Amino acid sequence: MKSIFKPILLLSCLIALPAVAKKLNVLFVIVDDLRPLISCQGDPIAKTPSLDKLAADGMVFERAYAQYPICGPSRGSFMSGMRPDTTGLMGNNTPFHNVLNEELTLNRYFMQQGYAVFGAGKVYHNSIGDDWSEPYFKSEWLDHVKPENKRKADIFFTPKSEGLPPSIEAEDVGDDAYCDGQAAAASEKWIAQAAKDGKPFMMVTGFRKPHLPWCAPKKYWDLYERSAMPVAANRYHPIGAPEIALKHYGELFGYGDIPNGTPLTDELIRQSMHGYYACVSYADAQLGRVLDALKKAGVYDNTIIVLCGDNGYHHGNNGVWTKGVCWETTNHVPLLLKVPGAKKGQRSDALVELLDIYPTLCRTAGLPVPKHCEGKSLLPLVEHPKQEWNGFSASQFRKGKIIARSIRTDRYRFTLWEKGRGNVVGTELYDYEKDPQGNVNLAASPENKHLVEKFTKLHQSEWPSEY
Fold first, then answer.
1. What is the pTM of this model?
2. Domains observed in the chain
């Protein structure tokens, strides 16, 4: 498949990596459904001291985008280094390793390069794979601990299912009672073991929160006042958006405490926002444990660290809860990178993609980038944050036989919904300079005809012809 970006001249990367005989270690942290509602990206509510510390030690990419707005295809993309059009993964029901069992995934490649590779929590979706140096530690999706909730969770995947438990839980328990504390504990153990063995390692840790259900120890709920939780002002679909682009209700509305088929009340919105923020802080605390484990083992300064969300998340804004639409909020994600020896506390406004993580880790670790990778290393931006970069980032989403392919430029998001090449069934154009929340689709406005034509040609020339 050809690159969807025109080649540009990159400045040489002159970062002075540590002058040690050992290879650099890698910590890759994936946080489920984390949008940039974190304090190091300007959110005034979130309490995320571990993320703030990582940002201070490394670099924040302010405009990073996922390639797909749901878990499975997004993770399949950045863990394989290939776009969803190439992997063919465009839904959550197909296990990644059933489709790409022979592909050179990130963890498989680092194992081939002599690394000890460990996995904990949620890395892939509905799949584990066998490319790990030790048995993979898998955490549970429904991790309620309150007895009546746990009973429902335990039988949900059986014929005796009584439906989903509540969307929230705030028991007064320790961190390891819930899934992400357990993933952090496994990561701590393996980091200590690897450091003792003296072999270069890659630790891939996936935190399930703030994905639903919003279960976290009570102390994280106590960090926030529910009455202070924000309520989106734009609780309506974008004006003029095609029907195919819309989402009506969805994942949140399957939980026992959320009425299905009716809009949420302000009280339920604040409850949901409270749960999301509590889980963000819980995941942040588990990140802190893993970072402390690196420091305790004496390998923090010699470890490359990448952290990202797998997709964005709507909280009622644009009339949507959760994800599964091809708009700004569901594709915009946090991306933090710490490179040993690089300048600390940097920020970049370049348009980057999660697809870039694989080649970035290879280049930083001193490894060749496999030929199949379709992203590019972010190391030049670490050295020169303001240099010229991509003209746009790309995301996509499929509904049945119709596929949305969306490009995000510096100012606009343009999306074509097609049922086969050239058979356009919906068009979207949002101007974030004039309309930061993406409330109005401008594609049908006569004054924007030239933009629609321009971006349509960009689609035709830059997206791979074989899709």
1. 0.95
2. 25-390 (3.40.720.10)
